[in-house]
Amino acid sequence: MRVFAAPVVLALVLAATSAFAAKDTIVLGMQDEPPVLDPTQNAAAAIDVIFSVNVYESLTRIGEDGTVKPGLATSWTVAEDGKAYTFKLPKGVVFDNGEKLTSETVKWSFERAGAANSTNPTKRHFGAIAAIETPDPETVVLRLKQPSSLFLSYMASGGAAIFDPKSAEGNKSNPVGTGPYKFKQWVKGDRVVLEKSPTYRDQSKATIRQATFKFVPDAAAQVPALLAGDIDAFGTIGATETLDRFKADPRFQVIIGSTEGEVPLILNNNKKPFDDIRVRRAVNHAIERKSIIDGATSGYGLPIGSHFPPHHPWYVDLTNRYPHDIAKAKELLKEAGYPNGIEINIKPPPFAYARRSAEIVAAQLSEAGIRVKIEPVEWAQWLDVVYKQKNYDMTVVAHVSPWDQDNYTRGLDYYYGYKSDAMDALMKAALVESDEAKRKGLYEQIQRKIADDAVHAFMFQLPRTGVYAAKLRGFWKSAPVSVTDLAALRWVD
Known about the structure:
Helices cover 25% and strands 22% of the residues. It contains 13 helices and 21 strands. Strands 2, 9, 10, 11, 12, 13, 14, 17 and 19 form a nine-stranded mixed β-sheet that branches. Strand 9 and strand 10 form a beta hairpin.
């Protein structure tokens, strides 16, 4: 899983034809700051937003259309039985520290990611690898224990980034990669700066010389920063109520798209009272999505009833699975042994959609006798207290990784606290199924299972509400993954 704070700018693109020197720097606004700079050590999506495809490269990457494309690997072949992937690497690739990339580097990176002591957030994906072969410096063969329909997608994640063994331990604060950009500076609490890499294998790919990712956690502060020109773009602005203002200003362009970020009211299934499905279903009946969407996203979010994006053709509309019904919610609480209601906490991280959702949800649940204490936490606290320690009753956060329904098979070790043998069986079948029609049917069952078990109370799909300088081009309308493709950036006159 990649937990997400607020999604940010993805790819903005430009060409200058002026007689004067073309602008070659850009400042991109971000709501959340990464806790560390290594995606193999932490699940925060902000790391990928800044570093994936820019500094760190994985064998594959996800394109704007959501499909798998070549990344560090130039091509690959898949065995007929689906259990062997042969990747070809380009020659002459070097890391920012001057070390050469070979197939042995890939092998070391993946063995490290899947090791028993690994803290990689995507460690489970490497458990599918039975053997890694390096027949020559430019060829890597990954042999799987069983076929995996999502293996190429998994290889595109930040957790699958290829590291140089000599620099890996220092990547938390001093990233070293093979991408078109190199790390320059991290001023904690303020910004991360990247600059064009002089050793990248294709110097014609990038035109932006320097990119600054500026952290502006306060949604209200994002607006004046844009208006003053201190920030050139915000991929997802938190103060969605200001979008009409930017639409009317010729200095800006507003682009509305979607993300892979499902936003549930997350319930701790392994802690009372949410270890009782009746209580979880009571919460589902007590929330009213339209008010939440209007208040948290100014109406731009799309309602969801399970963990699956509405823009995908396999989506099943389950928003009517639990109709808004306060009387039913009270009845379920009484059946569960709580005739006088319950008292719980909600710990939202510091993102506008999360804090606003928490306030609206608390008011709605109170009508059913569910008394909610709002305990706001900062992002680093959320990652520690909620995600790692699982010390919470409810929380709100967007889950932005594509195909992340396997989070529901991670058992009690994962912060959902949800365990279901039936779900495990469905997901296992979906991951090995090669027939697309059958796989679609399995994912439809997975969506229904998540909803039937009321694992969470699903609210909306996080919209991508981008505000960009009028002369920026090439940004992605939607965010199929949490990356910023800096090499695509261009300014126009």
